[in-house]
Amino acid sequence: MLQRDLHAQLRNSLVFSRDRIAALARPLDSELLVRRPSGGGWSVGEVLEHLCVVDEQYEERSWGLVASGQPDLANLDREWRPTKLGQFVAGMLSEPKPMKAPKRYVPGDSVRDRVVEQFLSRSATLCVQMDIALPLDWSALRMQVPRLPFFVKLNLGDVYSIQAVHTSRHLGQMERVLAGIA
Question: Residues 25, 44: contact at Cβ < 8 Å?
């Protein structure tokens, strides 16, 4: 896939998910935001907290990677290829079956104040970052995966792909939670 096409696809996915999450979560009062489904699982607020916690692990590194890149408009027409790890993680997150989050990404006992707006702001910032990074070579720029050995790296396109799939996955989870507590 051409990098410009990947950018458009991922950006559209992120904007769709962000808009849908805003429509679902903004109207919730504080009690509904943290109400867990009767069958167990996370509340909408906890899902948003999880997304914020994960984003915090990647944000500084990805901005550093973008700042270190050399813009070249020829990169727009380059073929982007995922790493094996990136392809595996994105594929795994695309599956509809439930998964356990790594312990470090599990929300705590409470969600942060204004978790909805914090998530929406982070998502908008990610889209800005992708736009700024568009003229960089997403296949060549590699980032260490937080909390894994130094040699475990994803390319920038992997990072953006995983974030888009992860957000979409949790949008579906929030829709199911709200259907179960309505």
Answer: yes
